[in-house]
Structure formats: structure tokens, C-alpha cells
Specification:
By secondary structure, the protein is an alpha/beta fold. The protein folds into 2 domains: about 10-40; about 80-175, Rossmann fold (3-Layer(aba) Sandwich), CATH 3.40.50. Helices cover about 40% and strands about 20% of the residues. The strands form 2 sheets. The protein has a 5-stranded mixed beta sheet. A two-stranded antiparallel ribbon has the order 1-2. β5 (about 125-130) and β6 form a beta hairpin.
Length: about 180
């Protein structure tokens, strides 16, 4: 009498049903753990979300030291020209350009500061990848949307973010715009 490999292990239909049963059991176990978490959170008394503004103390702090989370630092109105950096390049992110701008000595001497709020910006520094190794940067007045300064540079021979920061400071120092 001949026996096949399928005969020893069961029919393909039985194996398929076993896999389906195993997947359903796994999902049931995982969802049960999720339900357990939901019932715990639902059984706790509902509290108003004050996590962003409450005061916290750490054990290493003295009694009079308090850290307040969730508050915006007050920025003086006459702080200088606020620059918002927008990069559409996948290779050079806006945060990298911001870092390089802050490291330029002329940036702060000219009265520029970085902002992450587009609505608070006086100037918008846009960077986009043009062709192959070429990048285009543009400085736009946020209120009037006039192009104040623009330039094209290559990524060869240095980092793009550093080159953009140097050119921004150089061109804005030469620009007659207040």
C-alpha cells in the first residue's frame, strides 16, 4: 500500500483550515488585550486634559523650582526679522538649513531669528532641488510676497545647507531691504 506525504500530514484542506483557525485565534488574543486596556481606561474617572499646562516637580529639584510645560515663551515684538525656512528637497531638510543659519555669525548680527510658525514670519527662505546637483533658494517677503533675493547653487564641493546659509547672509547684508 502506497502512502503519500499528504496522507501522513492530513489533506491540504485540513492544513488550510488549521492556518485559518490559528490566525483567528491570534487576532482574538490580541484584540482581547486591547479590550482589557480599554476597560481599564474607561473605568478611571474622566479628567479634563490639563497635561499641557500643569506644573511638575522632580525629586531632584528644590522645593521652589517648578517646571511649566506647554507654555509658549514670550517673544518680544521687536526681536528682528523672523525667518521661516521651507525646503521641498528630500535631501536637504529645513531643520538642517536652520541649524546652519544659526551657526553663521552674520545671521544674528543682521537681526534675524528663526521661527517655526509661518504666520509669524517676516521672511520665507524657500529651498528646492532643481536639476541633478543644482538647488534654487528664494527669499520672499511674507506680507507682500515679493521675491527679495534668489540664487542658484551646486551641491558639489560642500553641503547645500551651509552654502545656502552663507549666501543668505551675504545677499541679505547687501540687500537694501530694511
Amino acid at each position: 500500500m502506497k502512502t503519500s506525504a499528504l496522507h501522513c500530514y492530513g489533506s491540504p484542506r485540513t492544513i488550510s483550515n488549521f492556518r485559518l483557525l490559528a490566525v483567528v485565534a491570534f487576532i482574538a488574543i490580541c484584540s482581547d488585550a486591547g479590550l482589557a486596556q480599554d476597560t481599564v481606561s474607561k473605568s478611571l474617572p474622566q479628567q479634563i486634559d490639563r497635561a499641557a499646562t500643569r506644573q511638575r516637580r522632580t525629586s531632584s529639584e528644590s522645593e521652589d523650582a517648578v517646571i511649566v510645560f506647554g507654555t509658549k515663551p514670550e517673544v518680544p515684538l521687536k526681536v528682528g526679522r523672523r525667518v521661516f525656512v521651507r525646503s521641498s528637497s528630500l535631501l536637504v531638510r529645513g531643520a538642517v538649513v536652520e541649524d546652519k543659519l544659526l551657526k553663521q555669525p552674520g545671521f544674528q548680527q543682521l537681526g534675524f531669528v528663526i521661527t517655526r510658525e509661518l504666520s509669524e514670519a517676516d521672511l520665507i527662505l524657500e529651498l528646492r532641488h532643481d536639476l541633478f546637483t543644482m538647488y534654487v533658494f528664494t527669499v520672499v517677503d511674507a506680507k507682500t510676497e515679493f521675491v527679495l533675493v534668489s540664487g542658484k547653487l551646486s551641491s558639489l564641493g560642500g553641503t547645500v545647507a551651509d552654502k545656502v546659509a552663507k549666501r543668505f547672509v551675504k545677499k541679505m547684508a547687501q540687500s537694501p531691504v530694511p
